[in-house]
Task: structure prediction
Amino acid sequence: MRQVAILGVGQMPVREHWDVPIRQLAVNAGRAAMEDAGIQRVDGIFVGNMSSGEMNQQRHLGALVADFLGQWGVEAVKLEAACGSAGSAMRQGIIGVASGEMDAALVIGVEKMTEPQGKEITAALATAADADYEAVHGVSFVGLNALIMRRYMHEYGYQHDDFAPFPINAHANGAKNPNALFREPITQKTYARGRIVADPITLFDASPIGDGAAALLLVPVEKAPDAVRVVGSASAIDTLAIHDREDPLWLKAAEISANKAYGQAGLGPDDIDLFELHDAFSVMAALSLEACGFAEPGQGVRLAQNGDILPNGRIPICTMGGLKARGHPVGATGLYQLAEATLQLRGQAGEAQIDGVRTAMTQNIGGSGATIVTHILQKPQSQ
Result:
């Protein structure tokens, strides 16, 4: 298998793009990545998206996006794994290039969410849960995460305000990212005043939806020896329904995929310089840190309280705002994480740049932990 490099990066700002259809969001990000890479023709296009059929009345995004990029005749498909769609698309792009089937693969994550009514968005997001055993009872996606957060607080003795460092850090970092939806820092006082969405989750515990697209252009390392490299890539699943899990407070798929990626890279948690985790909800940030070996069970919140997740901390997270401040266009999120990590490794993260970064990890979660995709990126040793 060939090692894979990231030669091109493209992003659209996460916004309410009322005048931009979903195809154009994807095309703009894809074209930006191709221009960044200096490549005009690719061998395959992999599009991550969750709900274009329900929210935009448009499926068949692979062919649609390839068509409007002028890439006629190439292999092009859409990948869906709920909120883990973009990370899953990245996996397929990596496999395509690593296997030798492709010399240039374009991976795009896209979602357009702000035009449907709120109830339609809630219904679409609920399809990430188990339709017969969770959604049928009327529980929303945020409701499921509220149950997880309440259980975490009960098991480990935390109060709601103890989670504040997660969104405070995200918003502070998002203020430095021109592509972020929210670019204003928040305080502990602001967090405490957040209105309840689904008890105990408040407005500042939940990531906002948005319209967005991000893209990467992948090639073999020998064609781009100075580019950021993919040194670990793995995906794993857990049960779809939370109640079927042995421990609802342990992200087993995160543990499995992270350990596989660590093994491929020959690295461990102590070697990771930053972690773009999937902070769809504050409690998910804590669970991800624990499952990936950065904290013991129940200590993810303590890690945040100690300042270890800050830009100058032991394991900086959400360095350009994360889902909470950058925004969470669900099917695009995994590519935003990877694009941001790549920019950090290139030294092109602007005001959000973390000093001395050589190795970055990203983790994209689908559903309430049912699909989890982990990637590890690294600068070439010569740099």
